[in-house]
Amino acid sequence: MAKLVELLLRYFPIRFVIRLTEFLSIKYLQLVDYLHTKCDPTPLALFRILFGFLMALDVFQERGLSDADIRFGDPNYCFFPLFEWIQPLPTQQACILYSIMWAGSIGIMLGLKFRLSCLLYLCPYVYFFLLDKSRWNNHSYLFGLFAMLLTWSGAGHHMSIDTLNLPAKNKLSGVPKWNYLILKFQISLLYFFAGVKKLFDSDWVNGYSMKNLSKHSLFSPLKMVTDAETIEFYMVHMGGLVYDLTVGFMLNFDFSKKAAYLLSLMFHGLNSQIFHIGMFPYVCLASLVLFCKPHEFPCSLFKSKLDQKSRNNSSDKLQRTQQHGSSIPRNSCSSRVTTGFLLFYILLQIVLPFSHSITQGYNTWTKGLYGYSWDMMINSWETLHQKITVRNYETGDERYLDPDVWVTNDRWSSHPDMARQYAGCISRNLARFNITNIEIYMDVWKSLNGRFQQRMYDPRVNILTAPWSPFEEVTWVLPLLRQFSHYRQDHFQRIAKEVSNWTESSDVIFVADFPGLYLENYLPKELGNVSITILSGQIMIEQDGDPNITLSTIRMSAGNEATTGDDGSNTSNGDVLISTKHGIRSAEFHKVHVVSFPNPSCYMYTYTNDTAEKLKRTKGSEYEGDGENSIISQIWNEIKGFTLEKYQEFATSIYLVANAHLNLFFDVPMVIRKSINSPD
């Protein structure tokens, strides 16, 4: 028996490994052969044309050419590079690099020196992408992937300038099947992972991520037959979830493909009007042609323009290829390597969206770098307050810095890596004004998906020297107060309706804070009838000229015994929480201290905006009786405003590119605009 076991251990594993290796090798060669089978290039060529055209428009807009002089021309402007060694170029060089990217997109569209055009577009694209994380989003990442995959593909083999001088028999030479499969995989993955992220996000499933979206005029017809809550929950949240989970599969089957086209047209059409997301909806619509067969519309229109002889030659060639296998031998080294890269790319795209447990330094209340995780529209942010305090650690003197002075967006306020980079940029900029030996503190108040406004970062931590690593949890990011999340369902909507009934300009702000911290707030004189009401816990209000006021929630039990509630928990056993409130004077500072140790507290501001109320009355009297004409006028004004904005972006971009070339080659001075927030 012992000898038998020894023989099995000695020979069976080796034979098993050998047979497994042989089996996998055969399957791998079959996969190589299948992936390199020739297909009609018409749908791929049509996608190439549409993608190149849309990217040419995108360069002026989201890629940032139209405001390149404002960002690259200001030496104090703060970029947020992924790697610190990536530095901004001088203005004229940046504009020339943008022009190269634009020329590359035109080359992609026309099929002119196709692979070179792809590289001319892709290389500057990657540079600008890595230079500034604050401009990242999912579709910017997607555009880069599409450009890379097209560079690798044979999309320039048909309907391109490169093929004009080729013999007729070669004009319809097929492209390997993997050209289609890898792009279809990327598109299907985009949708499916977006659906998975929504499915496992409680805020999306419960309808909190896209609140107030029904206020858009596009949903006005639906409001005639249903209410806003139904539109937001069933159409926006549930409809978006089902669409993302299913459309990728529907596009890959003939019986459901037409329905997927219709749903995609509606979905992306709405997105293009509701959200400011640039070319993303149009690129997604353009990608639908990849799922078309050559004889289907719209591909059939372009194929029919070729001469009959070329069509017949190509058809015979494709038939021979399908009968006898790929024209590329399956023992070809290049085909094997290509297949290996495809498998690696697929694995990488599956793993990356769920790598947040590794890159913990980028996590806050949400997980991971926003860009490659496909968590589209899951998180909506609202910022209440931002305060940057610059303190001299030798003298103790404090100064306050405008948070927007050297940036064009506030993405730094939601990501600790960017907050630390921003602190470093502020320090370098202030050193130019001889302000040194400083500490920087950030007090940022934000709301995630309709929750209470609360602090993002610990305001007691010097961000300039705060520890940060891409692979370690950030200790100075304060936790999301999820114990108060139930207020969104139980109280927020009811309270907001009650307050809105006071006047048209009455509003409410819900705030939560940690024990031992305080909110210092200034109320402008336009705000009237301001009061603070405690919802849970205990707070102390401090305002000049008044004694300190302490507010607590009082819990009345079933036996009418009153106790102070400071634990922030739900009531039970018939208990009722009685909130207390206190009026606040406008045009003055006040402080709200949380004293409910060791638990956090939550409270709310209610107020009336007197100036807004007067403006509404004035406008109401001006437009009273206009009715339908005012709506038509509003739509027309929006169209004119949009057209003028795009024209100005295009004109400014052309001017910057021309001025940059004149400056570089003829030393003509370059006129650079300056942000109104930037100090002299």
From TrEMBL:
Q: Origin, by domain of life? A: Eukaryota
> Which UniProt key words apply to this protein?
Disulfide bond, Lyase, Membrane, Transmembrane, Transmembrane helix
This protein's membrane topology, according to the annotation, is:
Multi-pass membrane protein
Where the protein is mainly located, per its record? membrane
Q: Which Pfam families match?
A: HTTM, VKGC_lumenal_dom
Q: Where is this region: Disordered?
A: 311-331
The record places domain HTTM-like at 36-296
Segments traversing the membrane: 96-129, 141-161, 181-200, 233-253, 273-292, 337-354
Protein name per its UniProtKB record:
HTTM-like domain-containing protein
